[in-house]
Design brief:
The complex is a heterodimer.
Chain A lengths: L8 H21 L2 E2 L5 E2 L11 E3 L7 E3 L4 H9 L5 E8 L11 E10 L3 H16 L5 E5 H8 L9 H10 L10 H16 L5 E8 L8 E2 L5 E9 L2 E8 L4 H17 L9 H9 L4 E7 H9 L16
Parallel strand pairs in A: 1-5, 7-8
Antiparallel strand pairs in A: 2-4, 3-4, 5-6, 6-12, 8-10, 9-10, 10-11, 11-12
Helix pairs in contact in A: 1-9, 2-8, 4-6, 5-6, 7-8
Chain B lengths: L2 E3 L8 E4 L2 E11 L7 E8 L5 E7 L3 E3 L3 E11 L3 E5 L6 E5 H4 L11 E7 L2 E6 L3 E9 L12 E6 L4 E5 L7 E5 L4 E5 L3
Antiparallel strand pairs in B: 1-6, 2-3, 3-4, 4-5, 7-8, 7-10, 8-9, 10-11, 12-13, 12-15, 13-14, 15-16
The chains are: A alpha+beta, B mainly beta.
Chain lengths: 315, 189
Amino acid sequence: MDWQPAASWDALALRARLLRATRGFFAGLGVLEVQTPLLVATSCPDPNIPGIPVRPSDGRTMYLHTSPEHAMKRLLCAGGPDMYQVCPVFRDGEAGQRHNPEFTMVEWYRHDMDYLDLAAETAALIEVLLDRAIPVDRTTYRDAFLSGAGVDPLTGDEAAVRDACRRAAVEVPASATRDDMLDLLLGTVVAAGLDAQKITVVSDYPVSQAALAQVRPDDPPVAERFEVFLAGMELANGFHELTDPREQRRRFVAEQERCRRSGRPVPPLDERLLAALESGLPDCSGVALGFDRVLMLAAGTGRLSDVLAFPYDRS
Amino acid sequence: MASYSTNEFRSGLKVMLDGDPHVIVENEFVKPGKGQAFNRVKLKNLKTARVIDKTFKSGESIEAADVMDTDMQYLYNDGEFYHFMEPDTFEQYAAETAVVGDAGQWLKEQDICLVTLWNNSPLIVAPPNFVELTITETDPGVRGDTAQGGVKPATLETGAVVRVPLFVEQGDVIKVDTRTGEYVGRARD
């Protein structure tokens, strides 16, 4: 029986030390630690972020949260200060060398902070956790694709994106949409093309991938969203948070429609979040950092299971 | 028809692709933070041994290959087919020479092999990892030569040729590792 832990005691001790360092980092900034439920009434309707349903005996369908975002935004709408949370989150079906269906997320929100300043703060936390100075590069999603895949992700049509996949020898499933192919390119050649020794902040995503970010009406318009990469791996994702409740509802409904079309279960709308947004979300930026991945880098391993006491398959 | 979802993918899984049975050699999960998840998979065609790359959107399903590994006794070769028998049911199966391939040189009548059946006909024949075969032809060696570490070719009863130490003689029964084709030692008896 594989009852033994997958991680070494060194890795588990390192985990404890980095958790302490994370809390120390936020204490130094005066950011409040909060705790919100892991078991929540509805899940993010984005079909790419599938929640795991749970059925208590009271007849309800609950979900293990995919991120604390909705609950923390309700706290912000209720007048909350800058806040952070360290908690396990759950994503159905995400299992691989760098994925585990349950992982630890560090999520925080900063009032009146520009999203690129928050990206810089994220890089600063990563440097604290890895205990060394790391140069930080900035690029846009567009430039990263132009140099990494030779295609313009904002203006290139489906054929141009497909052509870029072919040139990169990335095999594309028959059912892939244009956005699917962009995701595939990002996950393969584009991320691999970034300088592995530097923290790279990639910002300004296509509007089709805005998620919960505000859209800036440039030409073409872009989503005020960023991701942070190091060693060819995505470590964090952040937004200049969308505050408009009507636009938020429109996006949720569109995502529910995508769930329906792809035959996935459709989680109900998070009416409590929408009501909170109606009462007003202050201007803020927020980010989520994959804690276990940072721990992987700190431990010098390429496998997530090396830093988890009991990964999914032996939980 | 049974099928596998991408979250069941693992190496060794046997699936149907473009009408041929394949085995998954490698499975990589790729997912940009908030984007579509994919499984990038290397698959080997069990008929042609060709390895291909294929990408699946996570959540997609693929038909399982109706493939079964069964221990069978090798009976005889009639020049066109190799004949095998399942020891429990006495059911017999004929495998074409092309299916048996290099395994044929290790097959001795009565030996138990691992036969992979697809749609109830043999797809792959794997000889036992170790076989004991009689040397039918080799140059006479000199006893006491073991320290020299010299080797010579020897032809076995099944037609295979292996390199053996000089002291081994015609008529000896030797043990061979079929995975490497190397001489392991003389059989005890």
